[in-house]
Amino acid sequence: MSRCTTNKEAWQLLFDKYHILEEINQKGYFEITAKQINEFREARLMTKFDNSANLPELFKENNLAILPITSNSYMIAKFQTYMKFEETKDDEIIKISFPEYIQSLDYNNITSEALAINCAYITRILEDFLDEEELVPTISGKMGSGNFEFVINNKEKDNEYVNVSVRNSRIEIDGGYEGLNSLALIEAKNVISDDFIVRQLYYPYRLWKNKINKPVRPIYMVYSNGIFNVYEYEFEDDNDYSSIRLVRSKKYSIEDTELDIQDIQNVFNGITEFKEEPEIAFPQADSFDRIINLCELLFEESKTKNEITENYAFDERQTNYYTDAARYLGLIYKIKHQDNIVFTLNSTGRKILNLRYKQRQLEFAKLILKHEVFYNYLKLYFDRAEKPTVLDTVEIMKNSNLYNIESESTYKRRASTIRGWIEWILDLTRI
Is 80 exceeded by the pLDDT of residue 1? Predict the structure, then answer.
């Protein structure tokens, strides 16, 4: 039997062979083994969906998700396994210092979750956030989850639950730090996403809650573009996966992040000529932070379209939108290699990512404003001292010689990208 190259096609074959939807409709769930999954594609690749965007279309269309229940089996059901991040955009960024004697860790080049955790520890970000004394690293790595049961919300029916029994499933803890009063279990990511899978906090929490008599604190940390976003959660009912609640969050940076409107005005005034519009679809990618994050993900190595879609917080459509946006700005290359499409960070992207925080943001702003449509939008914003309307934005677009935009509806959809990117520039002064 030939192996599948994508999760999408492999799950379609599995659903067809084992009549998964039919059994879920009858019983409420389907249990599947790693051996069955491996018939079509490696189970490790087929079951790792850290964000809801990564779920195959079959799962999304039918409100399904998947959870491990033993070391080699999984449950598929209509349960709510993900939680959205709460907006923390206006939080103050706390400036912290980096120890001068540390030479083996370059805080300007944090390219993995492990480095991000190490940096958060040695700069005392964790100590400050947890308000803990004598904080030390104790546990990390892969281990068994132990045995426990829980309930989880049914995604389609309010006030209904799915019962789940876990028997020594495999878990991985990125970092466990114990202080005098508590044990913090940290899940670290270097990918920006809209949500996260609660399992990565809940399973380790249940394991260690039964092992020690100190409070166990689930911590989620996201590092991107020089900023550490740290979130603490709690489970109001230990036996209820869905009882997760955000306790608090903070933002930290090792570098000075203060920019003012004059910095933006200087970039704006420094634009003396515009870049010719490339023959690339005009961007439909509203979050500029995620474009930066994509470039960070490509910093270490090039990645195929499928790798970006399956391993990061993009669905297939978003992968197209955000890679096109980065190409539009001249940050990455798209290369056809045999049967794959490969994306690689170019020299411009590498140069910018190697800059210190403030200069890096200003260089990104300059790349945006070198396109006439963005420059004219910001000019109108400055002139009126208020955000241009959608109709104003469409009019600016129509006068900017954009590539391959014809319909009025397309202009209006793409207008949201212009507003989003300019708001990102202006928000730099509000951080």
Answer: no
109, 182 contact by CB (below 8 A): no
Beta strand pairing status for 216-224 and 93-95? unpaired
> Strands 147-153 and 170-178, how do they pair?
unpaired
pLDDT tens sequence across 36-76: 999 999 999 999 999 999 999 999 999 999 999 999 999 99
Contact 46, 5 (CB under 8 A): no
CA–CA gap between residue 222 and residue 281 (Å, rounded): 30
Distance between CA atoms of residues 395 and 389, nearest Å: 10
Delineate the domains of the chain, giving CATH numbers in brackets: 7-77 (no CATH), 93-149+170-253 (3.40.1350), 261-427 (1.10.10)
Query: Residue 75, class by beta-carbon neighbours within 10 Å (0-12 exposed, 13-18 middle, 19+ buried)?
Result: buried
Question: Under 8 Å CB-to-CB from 199, ≥6 apart: which residues?
Answer: 67, 68, 81, 241
Question: Which pLDDT score, from 0 to 100, does residue 146 have?
Answer: 96
Residue 236 pLDDT: 98
* Token digits of residue 192: 């920006």
Predicted confidence (pLDDT) at residue 410 exceeds the cutoff of 80: yes
Axis crossing angle, helix 357-369 with helix 372-384, rounded to the nearest 10: 100
Query: CA triplet 109, 354, 376: central angle to 5 degrees?
Result: 130
CA 109 to chain centre: 18
| Overall average pLDDT of the 157-174 stretch | 95
> Is-contact 218 101, C-beta < 8 A?
no
Provide the 3-class DSSP secondary structure of residue 26.
helix
Q: What amino acid is encoded at 10 in this protein?
A: A
Phi, psi torsion values for 349, nearest 5 degrees: -60, -40
Distance CA 431, CA 426 (A): 10
At 143, phi and psi to the nearest 5?
-165, 170
